Amino acid sequence: MIGILKIGFLGMFFVMAGDKASSQEQLKWGADFKEMHRDVVTGKSISFSVKTPPKPEILATKLPLIVALNGGPKVAPSAEFPFIEVRPSGGGIWGYRSLSTVDVMAVIRTMKQKYPIDPDRISLIGSSAGASGAMYLVSLYRDEF
Q1: Which helix or strand (DSSP H or E) is residue 27 part of?
Q2: How many Cα atoms occupy the beta-carbon half-sphere of 20 within 13 Å?
Q3: pLDDT in tens, 94-132
Q4: pLDDT digits (tens, 9 = 90+) for 20-50
């Protein structure tokens, strides 16, 4: 399946090839690894951390996504509580009020495109600046979280 997805207010377009079933089979289960997305402002690739649970019994299962912002508590996906955790880099900018907000939303878009994410179970966690950033992001993107 090939689709075109219009991304946000910047009017960027990304072409997505393949389907989620094949990406589920290629997903690194029970792993901690780096994933990349392209920064729509600078065009550079930005890495972010991903943690996955052990492989679920049914591959068709969509998993919750927990977005842990800077200063957020450490969480670990497990077989008992399967979810995917990401830790955006914030584009190297502290505070989640400008380009770091764009970075977080790009991470979420990337995860929804590549992995079996349940769009109705995306959560933000954080403490200190991460908690402030979570409140700010939820106020801007109420329908996303």
Answers
A1: none
A2: 14
A3: 666 666 788 888 899 999 998 889 999 999 988 888 888
A4: 444 455 678 888 888 888 777 777 888 888 9
**Model pLDDT for residues 56-66, shown as the tens digit of each residue:** 776 667 899 99
The conformation of residue 9, written as its DSSP 8-state character, comes to T
Contacts of 68 by beta carbon, 8 Å cutoff, 6+ apart: 75, 85, 86, 87, 125, 126, 130
pTM of the shown model: 0.74
Please give the Cα distance from 119 to 138 (Å, whole number): 15
What distance in Å separates the CA atoms of residue 13 and residue 10, rounded to the nearest whole number? 9
Q: What are phi and psi of 53, to 5 degrees?
A: -80, 170
Q: Cα–Cα distance between 55 and 17 in angstroms, integer? A: 23
Token pair, residue 12, equals: 């960027």
